[in-house]
Amino acid sequence: MTEKFHRWHSPNTNTDLEMLVFGDRGYPVIVFPTTKGRYYQNKDFGLIESVKWFVDNGLVKIYCPDTIDDRSWYNKNIHPADRAKTYAGYDRMLVNELIPWAMHETGVGKVAVAGCSFGGYHAANFAFKHPEKVRHLFTMGGAFNIKMFTDGYYDDNIFYNNPVDFLPGNNYHDLWQMNIILGTSEYDICKGYNIQLSSILKQKNIKHWLDIRPFANHDWPIWREMFPHYLSTIK
């Protein structure tokens, strides 16, 4: 499995970002790390190894970027409004830097986004905000309500980066064309978030799969089972 390291200065986040890319061709899959995780986390915890077959056979090309969790939602040293503004810059980075990069390298017009735990938030938030750029959404143990990080403060940046708030009123046609899988498990601490998001999608008649696996916790072993299964649905 080929692996390449990239580092670049992002004007949208005003910081240097790092990323690992696995494979040399195939459908582009952006995989976000969990809470405050780095670009190498999904490799270190075996998530990338779990889908080695798809990479080696040229079916997918996987991009694992940094997040800026410690500068945005998890930064208790700044006002919640500034946390949200900082995260809005990360969203612009995805739209203007990373997604065009992945599309250009693979020649594909839409991407897949995925992530475990808080990485599932990043994936779902981007997919539902920009459905014209996303064909597949795979979350594993995701949490989707950002209000726990805003200390009761609320503004437009928070609204438009909180999927359970903005999704009910989002009527982009591409939402109904997306392949959506919400993976959770019987003892997942985030199972309730997945049930809530599934309910919103049901109310909008958006086809999706709420995959609740039995006898499993909020942890990497079940996510390593889920991810290859989910990638097999990419067509």
UniProtKB/TrEMBL annotation:
Domain AB hydrolase-1: 94-148
InterPro entries: AB_hydrolase_1 (IPR000073), AB_hydrolase_fold (IPR029058), Mycobacterial_A85_antigen (IPR050583)
Pfam families for this protein: Abhydrolase_1 (PF00561)
Domain of life of the native organism: Bacteria
Designated name of the protein: Esterase/lipase superfamily enzyme
Organism: Mucilaginibacter gossypiicola
Lineage: Bacteria, Pseudomonadati, Bacteroidota, Sphingobacteriia, Sphingobacteriales
